[in-house]
Write a structure and sequence with these properties.
nine-stranded antiparallel sheet; six-stranded mixed sheet; mainly beta; elongated; Immunoglobulin-like; 1 helix; 453 residues; single chain; 4 domains
């Protein structure tokens, strides 16, 4: 046989061999996995809850890869979960979360579609029918604003898919809607949470974005309605009312390394002032000796009419005042010391001895002739009186001081001292907020505990 003929025969054989191998490989690659059995329970469930899938799947030739599960709700395909598989067979028993989506009525028909895939992209599908999804309804929801404020939303009597609340919020802000919150007003993601993904409101996890809100044409947001059927929020706004405290009118400064906002103004006894935006925060404590918190958006001034400087501590969230004239007896007495400070819901505020700035001393309010009231945070003393303690003075020049033994004490037994000493909180007392009523003439201090509202 001529060499050229041998070459042609070998080439033909090679083509046939590789072609046969390719065909065999294609045959193997198109192996079809089998969903032998599949069941989802229960047949009736609530959107936002989980169902359980049990299934037996196999592939005699190829390794299994994934079992993908979709729900068909009102003709819309919703991806639920991708279950990773191993080996040539698997028994599946797993909970699957079925989300609530917008524009879905109660008692909606739901179908589940399963797609089984092997590691060569061979696949088979199965549809499960006969399921009903119900809408969830809640006794309340929560609007959690990014700045830490939380408002409770109540269902409307006329439409239980709508949840509403009166608020005092900025004209624009970001938020999430939550089914549950923790004791410290954080979102509890074990419940349902609505956030924003790709510009649309939907159920989200911790990685979901905040919803942007804007009350157009208003000074501030005064009410919110969350529509849980259409997944949208309607905001209503209002104009500022006067007299008011607006943070825009304050000047920013730093005192002892902490951020403060200050404003010089005239305050009128028993006048009510509207507070807005950050100054309406529920976590903000207005000096309880000089202000009564009437509502989230209003405070009443209890002091005497006059010129004052307002101080808002942005870090520790308290709001206090000092008169423009130096505070002196008989209009005021002042208290300075260590281990004491302004009441705060988020910080154990205490500074140190002195009268150099508003953080160094506490101003009392005169409530009757020679009787003064002051509410303060008090730390317990350590075993040795090495730094915690305080004294009252008639002025900020260290004048007219009185020591522990100048007074008798009534009410809670939390203070002690010796002749000529400072007034010390007792070792082991519960740290907290206490109100001292000081009768300067009768030389008595009455102590009671205070719970911040």
């Amino acid at each position: 046989m001529k060499p050229i003929n041998k070459i042609l025969i070998l080439c033909a054989f090679s083509i046939f061999f590789f072609s046969s191998c390719e065909k065999d490989e294609n045959i193997v690659a198109t192996s079809i996995p089998v969903i032998e059995t599949a069941n989802i329970t229960p047949n009736t469930f609530t959107f936002g809850d989980s169902v359980t899938i049990t299934a037996k799947v196999s592939d005699a030739v190829k390794l299994l890869s994934t079992l993908d599960i979709q729900a068909i709700i009102n003709g819309r395909a919703v991806t639920l979960q991708k279950i990773l598989l191993e080996g040539n067979s698997a028994d599946v028993n797993q909970k699957i979360f079925v989300p609530l989506i917008d524009n879905v009525s109660d008692n909606t028909e739901v179908k589940f579609q399963l797609k089984l895939t092997n590691n060569k992209n061979g696949s088979s599908t199965k549809e499960l029918t006969g399921f009903t999804g119900n809408r969830p309804y809640f006794t309340k929801l929560y609007m959690a604003i990014t700045n830490g404020e939380v408002y409770e939303l109540a269902p409307q009597a006329s439409n239980r898919d709508n949840y509403e609340a009166a608020v005092v919020a900025s004209r624009y802000f970001s938020y999430k809607i939550a089914q549950k919150i923790t004791k410290d007003n954080q979102i509890d993601y074990s419940g349902l949470v609505w956030g924003e993904v790709d510009g649309k409101i939907q159920l989200v996890s911790e990685t979901g974005g905040d919803i942007f809100a804007f009350a157009k044409g208003s000074d501030y947001t005064s009410s919110v309605v969350f529509d849980n059927y259409h997944f949208n929020t309607t905001l209503s706004g209002s104009a500022y009312q006067t007299p008011n405290f607006l943070l825009d009118d304050f000047s920013e400064t730093t005192i002892d390394g902490e951020e403060f906002y200050t404003l010089d103004t005239i305050l009128t006894k028993n006048a009510e002032y509207y507070v807005y935006n950050e100054l309406s925060s529920k976590t903000l404590v207005y000096n309880v000796d000089f202000f009564e918190r009437i509502s989230p958006s209003k405070v009443k001034f209890l002091g005497e009419t006059g010129a004052y400087t307002l101080y808002y501590n942005k870090t520790s969230k308290y709001f206090v005042i000092l008169p423009k004239v130096s505070p002196e007896y008989p209009n005021y007495i002042v208290i300075t010391g260590a281990g004491i400070g302004y009441p705060s819901k988020i910080a154990k505020e205490h500074a140190g001895w002195g009268f150099g700035n508003v953080r160094n001393f506490l101003l009392t309010r005169k409530i009757s002739a020679d009787v003064y009231q002051v509410t303060m945070f008090i730390l317990p003393s350590p075993e040795q009186y090495n730094w915690v303690g305080f004294k009252p003075f008639e002025n900020t020049g260290w004048g007219g001081e009185k020591t522990y033994d100048a007074f008798t004490y009534t009410g809670l037994d939390i203070l002690e001292g010796t002749a000529g000493s400072n007034i010390f909180p007792k070792v082991g007392i519960e740290e907290g907020i206490y109100r001292l009523t000081i009768d300067w003439n009768a030389n008595n201090i009455h102590v009671e505990a205070v719970t911040l509202q």
